[in-house]
Amino acid sequence: xxxxxxxxxxxxxxxxxxxxxxxxxxxxxxxxxxxxxxxxxxxxxxxxxxxxxxxxxxxxxxxxxxxxxxxxxxxxxxxxxxxxxxxxxxxxxxxxxxxxxxxxxxxxxxxxxxxxxxxxxxxxxxxxxxxxxxxxxxxxxxxxxxxxxxxxxxxxxxxxxxxxxxxxxxxxxxxxxxxxxxxxxxxxxxxxxxxxxxxxxxxxxxxxxxxxxxxxxxxxxxxxxxxxxxxxxxxxxxxxxxxxxxxxxxxxxxxxxxxxxxxxxxxxxxxxxxxxxxxxxxxxxxxxxxxxxxxxxxxxxxxxxxxxxxxxxxxxxxxxxxxxxxxxxxxxxxxxxxxxxxxxxxxxxxxxxxxxxxxxxxxxxxxxxxxxxxxxxxxxxxxxxxxxx
Length: 389
Known about the structure:
This protein has 389 residues and is of the alpha+beta class. It contains eight helices and 22 strands.
């Protein structure tokens, strides 16, 4: 096989020899150190193959022998180059293609993560990027074992990780730590009392003696469920009372905003710009400039895929909205005050069922105000330990 490759690179010819006593040609070849092979007798002479260099030298020895030679076929790289010498661009393109293919195979194009359930894939990819594993990373500079240890150190929820880099694809397989079941804490004997004034609307007693009924009004600190239970024989025992007592309660909150206030408001004018990204290269698709001094933008990335496999090519779309500074009117201030109230409810009334809101607006020289009265249903039960002496 190696001999055939060498012959192809150097180039060789198939020769037909004719004349009287063509067998003399064999003696000349052997005596003068010519290289030849595949010699066969044919009608009127013989055929053989030999290097181009030796064939040119052979003519000197055949001048007075009467043997004539003729080239039947030409083989090898030199003849191919000569045949396509008018198509240099094609050859250069083929060489560049091979070089680029060899170059790009040294980089990671695709990164896939599997095996994670609780940890977001984006979080794992972000840590991997910090450790040098990302789309466009040079594969020869990555120590997969050391990288895996660093990822586990930064994400302690992972108990095992495997980084397999095959050609230009990185397969990341992770195993998350098992979460042990929560241990039941032993409870001391206790009562359940009201943590604030309320009207009882629902009771759910799991353990203990219920002391209030639905529709009862209770005050803060009042006993709702007793930890003392009496059986049918009249025997008493102290238990940890457990219950959910839902009561209707009330909250008041005042929200205010400055009377003179300038805020950035969207003008309604929008535009879109796109960029194409390939590995570490990024270039714009749209060359439109932003016509506004102040604007708000949101960026979204669309990853290209084939057969559910992400490619290192993605399109970044930037949605831009024009913004102008504008003084807020009273009507818009009411909307802003309600947004402040909604934000306060999210954090301060979390887990509580809001039945009713009553808003009242007023203003003074400097501020706009909104007083809000809330009627909510919440769990008013809290435990109080029973101290036995």
